[in-house]
Amino acid sequence: MLLAIGSCWWPILKKTWDFYDSMSNPTHKTPIQNHMRYLQEDTGDVLPIDIALWPLRIVEGLPTQDNDNDCGIFVMKYMAASVVEGPVDWSSHKVWGKDMLMIRAEMVASFCQIFQSSLLTKHGFNF
């Protein structure tokens, strides 16, 4: 199971924090460690374990963005690849930056399809 907070996804069963940084910026590590502590403070009453003690693993070899606009798209692509492929060989995904316009168009088409399907189902049209 994956838990998303900020730009970091955590596989709960592995008891690690996996950090996917689409900008590959070493200064991003400190805020993530702060998020880990805040999450522990917020959930300490509910969770029987100290999640702040889990090791932080920075996922290496990821496709990276070349602007400040595509981080959300990269997060969705990272998670889609992880869910579909399981352990991912990120070297086969290096072209996302140059394909960003097509990736955005495909996502919009998928969202429209899901929305249309949910509307049809909601109004009793099951195909």
Question: Can you give me a brief rundown of this structure?
Answer:
With 127 residues, this protein is of the alpha+beta class.
Q: Would you mind describing this structure in some detail?
A:
- The chain contains 3 helices and 4 strands, in the order βββαβαα.
- By secondary structure, it is an alpha+beta fold.
- The chain has 2 domains: 2-93, Adenoviral Proteinase, Chain A (Adenoviral Proteinase, Chain, 3-Layer(aba) Sandwich), CATH 3.40.395; 97-127.
- A 4-stranded mixed sheet has the order 1-2-3-4, covered by helices on one side.
- Strand 3, helix 1 and strand 4 (56-58) form a beta-alpha-beta unit.
- It is globular, with a radius of gyration of 17 Å.
- The model has no long low-confidence stretch (mean pLDDT 80).
Total of DSSP H or I helical runs spanning 4+ residues:
3
Oligomer: single chain
Could you give the order of strands across the largest sheet? 1-2-3-4
* Average of per-residue pLDDT values: 80
Shape: globular
Radius of gyration: 17 Å
Order of helices and strands: EEEHEHH
Report the portion of residues in β strands. 5-15%
Structure summary, number of beta strands: 4
Largest sheet: 4 strands, mixed
| Total domain modules | 2
CATH third-level topology of the largest domain: Adenoviral Proteinase, Chain
What is the CATH H-level superfamily of the largest domain? Adenoviral Proteinase, Chain A
Q: What class do helices, strands and sheet pairing give?
A: alpha+beta
Termini Cα gap: 31 Å
| Helix residue percentage | 40-55%
User: What CATH architecture of the largest domain do you see?
Assistant: 3-Layer(aba) Sandwich
The stretches of 5 or more residues where confidence is low (pLDDT under 50) are none
The CATH class label of the largest domain is Alpha Beta
GO molecular function, one term: cysteine-type peptidase activity
Domain Ubiquitin-like protease family profile: 14-109
Protein name: Ubiquitin-like protease family profile domain-containing protein
Keywords: Hydrolase, Protease
